[in-house]
């Protein structure tokens, strides 16, 4: 693709645009070579339907697209049918709105092949375009990245069959932010072969994208490695199904950094906009939480890199079943722990991506869980209001399924039913798993980054700059021997087998054997200007490590928001509240559908907003306007009281598990 693009100045309707360099066709009318003109392409059938229907069509294009505006409707370019002859020499003036006496000039696209596609799909979709001279180009809107969520935007070489990309580094009109290009939604229509057609997706800057660099938020990494020559297979799968990858989002440095030295941290759009953005899929979360024009966001998760940002940005998120997506072409921390991760403003959006991009069970398994498990090792939460809201969330699952929660104590179960292997004999669960999770992860992390460190020293004769946090974890991993690592891997395997046989089956691909609730996030404010804490290793099993150890899906559900008095804005702001649920390997879709149906039955709003508030503010215990009438609100109050009364589940003896 020619490394050239254009920015319209002055802009149209106060909006910045970019012209895709691919020429789609040529008009027969004379146009000055230096002119850039917004136009609408319509079919011969649409143009000949009469003024009233034509006006309805133009209204539809403007009302159903964020790229097309009224300014595009001043010139209509007629898309010829395959049997069309040449157009008239002079454009025809037609009245498109008798009430306002507005008119549009009609230009004609030259007959012949206009796209490198065959059959019916070769016809240009009706919608907004630009003429550059007589040449027709797609119109891409430039959105300002005022949250600093993106490393850069992306423009495909061929918008109809993208394989290679170029980075877009244009500044916004005011010069304060980079711009992210998006095509008209009218260009793409989903079908059975391309279900993701037109879906706008941001991806974390750890995925290789052909034609552009992967940075890992490290200047040293970007300095050492050239642009990628292939697309990561997971992204190729998205592209093949029609997804529009609009840009690469920022990650913490090497996925563990906290200092943001080489790149500035994204802005968390929730509340006062000065809340902690978490990591490492920071930009992926910020982009979806802040920009309504974005549909989906893809990150990566090792030990909470998607689930953590979801809780701080007020999003639903899924760490899917381990191995359900290829890790090739992704800069990972560990081949044992890493997965892709999916953010969504609705559970249905996540399910849609899962269905079309992951290798998980696709059947319509309607089996309900027989157990709702609450591990006492992680509860109660330290904040009583957070715990109360968490209990309400568990309660709607109890009501929907018709099963009360059971509280279990993993430590106690281990003591009463330890693994039969002699290596675990006489050790508590904490002692047995004290080092294995963290040190095995750090060992992998150190060794997957070894080629970078050696390559940089060899190429530049000096050490690369690395932030304190990744440097700390690399040092931890460097001190783990191969013998110790192999021992930790065996211990994790023993724990996994023990969990499956004594706590909850996780190997059957359905929900029948139960789901487990896990805490996610904090209830109070945490500000972005706080000095980063020194990195320290967690010991044993924590809620974020359980799913990676067991290779199971872990779903984060955002369901409430709580007030706090911001020291930044001086106003009452609201923080999102989330809960986690873990289920059996391969049951990702069944879990998503279960939670969606439970929320729907309870009348809880589950489609998240972008911007300051996670949900519209409401007068209920969750501070969410569920869109219910007064009678329904009274019913919800009854349900909440009922749920509170059920909040103290009974603890089952081990033999009932």
Automatic annotation (TrEMBL):
InterPro entries reported in the protein's UniProt record:
Amidase_dom (IPR023631), AS_sf (IPR036928)
Amidase domain: which residues? 191-368
Concerning Pfam families, the annotation shows: Amidase (PF01425)
Q: Which SUPFAM superfamilies match?
A: Amidase signature (AS) enzymes
- Return the PANTHER family for the record: AMIDASE 1 (PTHR46310:SF7)
- Protein name, per record: Amidase domain-containing protein
The organism that produces this protein has a lineage beginning with: Eukaryota, Fungi, Dikarya, Ascomycota, Pezizomycotina
């Amino acid at each position: 693709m020619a490394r050239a693009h254009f920015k319209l100045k002055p802009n149209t309707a106060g909006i910045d645009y970019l012209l895709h360099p691919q020429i789609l066709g040529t008009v027969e009318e004379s146009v000055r070579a230096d002119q850039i003109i917004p136009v609408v392409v319509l079919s011969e059938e649409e143009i000949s339907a009469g003024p009233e229907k034509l006006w309805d069509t133009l209204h539809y294009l403007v009302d159903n697209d964020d790229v097309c505006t009224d300014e595009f409707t001043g010139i209509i370019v007629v898309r010829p049918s395959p049997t069309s002859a040449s157009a008239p020499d002079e454009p025809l003036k037609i009245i498109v709105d008798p009430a306002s006496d507005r008119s549009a000039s009609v230009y004609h696209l030259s007959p012949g092949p206009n796209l490198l596609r065959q059959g019916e799909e070769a016809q240009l979709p009706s919608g907004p375009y630009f003429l550059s001279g007589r040449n027709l180009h797609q119109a891409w809107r430039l959105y300002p990245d005022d949250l600093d969520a993106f490393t850069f935007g992306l423009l495909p070489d061929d918008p109809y069959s993208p394989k290679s990309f170029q980075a877009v580094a244009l500044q916004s009109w005011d010069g304060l932010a980079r711009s992210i290009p998006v095509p008209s939604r009218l260009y793409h229509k989903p079908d059975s072969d391309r279900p993701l057609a037109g879906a706008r997706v941001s991806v974390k800057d750890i995925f290789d994208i052909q034609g552009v660099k992967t940075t890992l938020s490290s200047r040293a990494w970007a300095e050492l490695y050239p642009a990628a020559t292939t697309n990561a297979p997971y992204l190729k799968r998205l592209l093949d199904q029609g997804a529009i990858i609009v840009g690469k989002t920022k990650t913490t440095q090497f996925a563990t950094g906290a200092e943001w030295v080489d790149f500035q941290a994204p802005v968390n759009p929730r509340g006062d906009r000065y809340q902690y953005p978490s990591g490492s899929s920071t930009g992926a979360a910020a982009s979806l939480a802040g920009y309504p024009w974005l549909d989906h966001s893809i990150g990566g998760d090792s030990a909470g890199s998607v689930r953590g940002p979801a809780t701080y940005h007020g999003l639903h998120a899924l760490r899917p079943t381990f191995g359900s997506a290829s890790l090739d072409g992704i800069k990972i921390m560990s081949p044992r722990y890493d997965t892709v991760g999916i953010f969504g403003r609705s559970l249905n959006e996540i399910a849609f991506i899962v269905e079309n991009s992951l290798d998980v069970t696709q059947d319509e398994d309607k089996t309900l869980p027989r157990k709702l498990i609450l591990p006492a090792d992680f509860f109660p939460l330290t904040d009583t209001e957070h715990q109360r809201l968490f209990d309400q969330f568990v309660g709607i699952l109890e009501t929907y399924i018709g099963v009360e929660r059971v509280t279990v104590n993993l430590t106690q179960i281990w003591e009463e039913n330890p693994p039969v292997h002699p290596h675990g004999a006489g050790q508590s669960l904490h002692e047995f798993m004290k080092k294995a999770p963290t040190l095995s992860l750090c060992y992998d992390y150190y060794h997957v980054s070894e080629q970078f460190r050696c390559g940089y020293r060899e190429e530049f004769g000096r050490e690369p700059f690395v932030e304190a946090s990744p440097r700390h974890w690399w040092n931890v991993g460097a001190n783990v021997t191969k013998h110790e690592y192999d021992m930790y891997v065996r211990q994790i395997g023993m724990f996994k087998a023990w969990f499956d046989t004594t706590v909850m089956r996780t190997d059957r691909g359905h929900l029948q054997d139960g789901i487990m609730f896990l805490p996610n996030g904090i209830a109070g404010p945490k500000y972005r200007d706080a000095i980063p804490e020194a990195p320290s290793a967690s010991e044993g099993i924590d809620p974020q490590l359980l799913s990676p150890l067991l290779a199971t899906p872990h779903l984060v559900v955002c369901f409430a928001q709580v007030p706090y008095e911001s020291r930044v804005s001086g106003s009452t702001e609201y923080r999102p509240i989330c809960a986690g649920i873990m289920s059996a390997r391969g049951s990702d879709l069944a879990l998503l559908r279960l939670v969606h149906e439970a929320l729907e039955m309870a009348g809880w709003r589950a489609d998240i907003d972008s911007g300051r508030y996670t949900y519209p503010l409401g007068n209920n215990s969750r501070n969410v306007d569920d869109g219910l009438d007064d009678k329904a609100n009274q019913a919800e109050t009854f349900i909440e009281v009922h749920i509170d009364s059920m909040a103290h589940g009974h603890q089952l003896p081990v033999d009932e598990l």
